[in-house]
Amino acid sequence: MGIDVIMVGSILSAIATFAVLVAIYAATTVKDPMAKRVKALNERREQLKAGIVASTSKRRKNITNRNEMADKVRGFLASLKVLQEGQVLKAQTKLMQAGIRSKDLAFVVIFARLVLPIVIGTLMILLVYVVDYFPTWGPMKKYGLVAGALILAYKAPDLWLKNKVDKRTHAIRKGLPDALDLLVICAEAGLTVDAAFGRVARELGKAYPELGDEFALTSIELGFLTDRRLAFENLAKRIDLESVRGVVTTMIQTEKYGTPLASALRVLSAEFRNERMMRAEEKAARLPAIMTIPLILFILPVLFVVILGPAACSIHDALLK
Questions:
Q1: For residue range 127-164, what is the model confidence (pLDDT) as tens digits?
Q2: Mean pLDDT of the region 263-284
Q3: pLDDT at res. 275
Q4: How many CB atoms lie within 10 A of CB 134?
Q5: What letter would DSSP give residue 219?
Q6: Which residue of 83, 98, 226, 313 is surrounded by the most CB atoms within 10 Å?
Q7: Is the pLDDT of residue 57 over 80?
């Protein structure tokens, strides 16, 4: 195959060392997530207050008060005429679903998507074709390395965002049935919807911080926005889950038609618990198929060496005699 085994082993060793260092750093620099969430919620509360009580000029000033780096990036992208409104809205939606409140970072994501392929592609071309760092590689291998680096550099911002969105969505899905049970208790106790969301956010803040963050933000928006329907729609936009959209639809119908909230939420909670149990059963059913490849690659060769190794040594010694 023309692959240098020593070089591949060195690369794998470097990757393993880097992973160990990252794990040690992550374990020794654990921060309290509550302070960051409280700060973000307070900023959102102040923004909602400014949007309601400020004059038109102050509101315009608040909207145009952007991050300086994001302004520069946005101006650069606008000068290149590559900035599309739909692309910006899509990036902002992904950032909200990833738990990042700053909309200005959407321009940074688009800028990274544009610049990273140029920078990394140029470096790989210089490394492969100019410096000739891999002299024993054929033309197809060199072309595959450069093309793979370009594709990975272009997809890196989207993969990073998708990873954050998937992790956050999984954490929210895990705690949603418990949150609905608490909402049912709050509704039967006579609390209003915004007070119920705030209470659930306080109770679930430590067990499910992502869900508590979203419920706290919805409670704030319910208290400040003139249209309560908009607060529920914002919750559905920030969480990419079909179950959350079902909860939002139930809340909107309850606000509009006055239907009983507790009974509807109790039915939804039971459905979500059944879905969670079905997902667990599905993972358990897939486990034998998933374990087949590691069993063949890692366990069976070791068993063969342990079982057949002594016999092979004995046969070899007998033949030598």
A1: 888 887 888 888 888 888 888 888 888 888 888 888 98
A2: 82
A3: 82
A4: 16
A5: H
A6: 98
A7: no
Q: Cβ distance 127 to 133 under 8 Å?
A: yes
Beta carbons of 149 and 120 less than 8 angstroms apart: yes
206 vs 47: CA distance, rounded Å = 25
Are the beta carbons of 110 and 87 closer than 8 angstroms?
Answer: yes
Query: How remote is the C-alpha of 290 from its chain's centroid?
Result: 24
Handedness of CA 264, 266, 271, 273 (dihedral sign): positive
The label of the residue with tokens 């016999």 reads 311
The two structure tokens encoding residue 204? 């679930």
In angstroms, the CA 219 to CA 77 distance is 36
pLDDT the model gives residue 188:
85
Q: Which of 239, 191, 190 is nearest to 218 (CA)?
A: 239
Whether 56 has a pLDDT exceeding 50, the answer reads no
Task: Judge contact between 231 and 239, C-beta under 8 A.
Answer: no
- Taken as a whole, the chain contains a residue count of 321
Tokens standing for 137? 């590689």
Number of other CB atoms surrounding residue 196 within 10 Å? 24
The answer to whether 234 touches 218, Cβ cutoff 8 Å, is yes
Selection from 235, 252, 253 nearest residue 244 by Cα: 235
For residue 36, is pLDDT > 80? no
Within 10 Å of residue 57's Cβ, how many Cβ atoms?
8
| Full-model pTM | 0.63
